[in-house]
Amino acid sequence: MKRIRLGFANLIIEFTDRYLALKRIEYWANRGTGFPKVVYGPEGCGKTAWLRQSVELLGERGFDVIYLNPIEEEFAIEIGVQSLRDRLINLVREATSRLSWGGVAWSVIDVVREAISLGRGKIAIIIDDAFQAIGLDRAAIYVKGLLGILEHPPRPYERIVTIVATSEGVSRREIGRHEWADLLAMWNMGRDGFRQLYEQVPGDKPPFEEVWKLTGGNPRILERLYENNWNGDAVVRELIDKKGVRAFIASLGPNDRELLIRALEDPDVLMGREGIPLMNRLIELNLALEIPEWRDDNLWIDAPPPERDLELGIGKYVAWQSPLHREAVKRALGMT
Fold first, then answer.
1. pTM summary value
2. Would you say residue 71 has pLDDT above 80?
């Protein structure tokens, strides 16, 4: 398989690692997906890079591929029916000019159904972080629309692969209420794969172990550190500002504030009657994430995190999205 090259800060790097996640794509390419696969995980953990590499893999295996990323305004459309390809490309161009991608995401369902009607037998639909464009309140309905392609096609097909990725922990809850999709978690990169990425970053840099403890294997945090000349304080300030952490802290009562302080040491304290409302707010801000307590392969799209690694902010049930996300909360609490 050809390894794609990706933008990283002002660099071009080669896709690395995610061996198990790519093996999962190969498995689906051979069997198809009976349900849409909804993949969720921390912001910047590498979902988009994996999906772009998956586009390459599925294309090499003869699939018509539709890849749509409304947030980054990127797409790839390789359909063996020129009229359908042109239609989607025109819709994307119109969406770009109007800053409205939600309609394009819905149009993908109609285009795929028509492609099946015209005899296209191997199709891959990859929707990357589209729920913000569609509306989080409509995420589950969109997934049901994708399921309708699989269960009620206009004619028999050979294989269809359907993947939707999201960084929105809230949408996971909404989708999980229904039996319309399989939910799979992706975590930050493992130590060995992250080291390969770290080694592609040029110039003087802190030792690997220091970078690992700051990022927890999150490629986006590595990118932000590189862009800020390895100044972790600058990245923490960016997180506090972007996510409105100070306003969030100011809104807390004494009990929630004390619970949050405890969660800095062990995020699993949030998995309880008193902690769940606070956990939900952290999930809404994309600071923390509820994760499967089981580290079974069938619940994870790649290697799962350890069951507990409190140094990196990982519990059995709840984890901070990265050590610097946790540090942003700690800083806003005035603890450093």
1. 0.92
2. no
